[in-house]
Amino acid sequence: MITIVGVGIEKGDITERGKKAIRAAARVLSRVRIPVKTEIIGKGFTGSDYESLDEFIASEVIKAERESGDAVYCALGDGFTDTAVAAIVKKHPDAAIIPGVAEYRGRKPHGEIATVAACDVKSVRYFDTRLPLMVYGIDDALIAGEVKLALADVYGDEQKAVFSSGGEQAEIALYELDRMKAYKGAALFIPGEADFMKKSRYGFTDLMAVMARLTADDGCPWDKAQTHESIRINMIEEAYEAADAIDSGDVDNLREEIGDVLLQAVFHCDIAERTGEFSFSDVVNELVTKLVTRHTHIFGENKAADPDAALAFWEKAKAKEKHYDSLTEQLNRIPDLFPALLRAQKAYKKAVKAGLKSGADEVAAKLTELLNSGVNKENAGELLLYADFLATAVGADGEAELNRRAKDFMDEMKRRDKNGEIGKDGDK
Length: 428
Known about the structure:
It contains 16 helices and ten strands. The protein is an alpha/beta fold. It folds into four domains: about 1-100, Cobalt-precorrin-4 Transmethylase, domain 1 (3-Layer(aba) Sandwich); about 115-200, Methyltransferase, Cobalt-precorrin-4 Transmethylase, Domain 2, CATH 3.30.950; about 205-280, Orthogonal Bundle (Helix Hairpins), CATH 1.10.287.1080; about 325-428, Helix Hairpins. A hairpin with a 2-residue loop joins strand 8 and strand 9. It is elongated.
């Protein structure tokens, strides 16, 4: 029998039931020193992360129970927030838990509140900063530092918070979290943002809230009036501007342009929700499902040793999902509105994968044949087509390469124009 006893954080926090279980147990174990005499687990631990430590503690507790018939694991706080408890219960589901006093009991009630274990903070990508947040299980300065870095990206370094340890509390700035003197059952409380306009940083939930406010009945007249069709061009323009920022290597501009692309996606979701077409949750659900089902080498049994193998598994899963039975069906899925070179590139790749014998040598031979037959208006399109095929066959992006060469040409013309070389006798 395994019993988990919450021992609180101060002397006197253990309940009478907890004391009785401790006195009756053959073995009593804990991860840190507490007012009760216990075996300290962890001396033989050689891992480098807290998840491994939790697994080690669970194994040691279960081992003690098997050797002695019963064992008690003393957990700080109420017995539910010690991360090792989850590992024990996972391996030993019938373990009993006798609750103690929660380590963050000093906090005043604030209604709805978000709680998260310190060891899980890094895996939580988005926090709703409108709600109060409680982070528990801050066992030492190392964990505190990880929590600080994760939350600073959401709240900012100067965010005011309440730090509690050993029954004492102090108001601190977030950047001070890993500089505290002691971490005895420590927890961090961050109040919800009362004034939206005074936030130091905004998050994804704020973006959704702003979008909903703009398109509310008393919102912005322009935003409320938009449809999928009216802002269609905006999506295209913002995507081009983001691509231009990538090509220019301007990271600051890229950050802004990616935001504009994100706005378009959120805008379309808001329109769809208001018209009953689909919701943002529907979009996210479909996207996550796609990412999981098409990465069979990550979430399935396949193994990919390199990017090409990974892409092959993606394409195979996509074909199965879309029920592609022929090349024609795949070609029909290429949007008519793609830029011409991109459309030709996509078509060529799909045809080659379907078995078309047309490598770089064959394409080059066809280009030579066309050039030898004389260039004219009638075959100019075919020349462009096979030039794009040749770029694709040798692993280049025809669209990107042509754009780059066009820029080189324009730069050269601007240089010559500046030097007064254009239009002079002998100009080349």
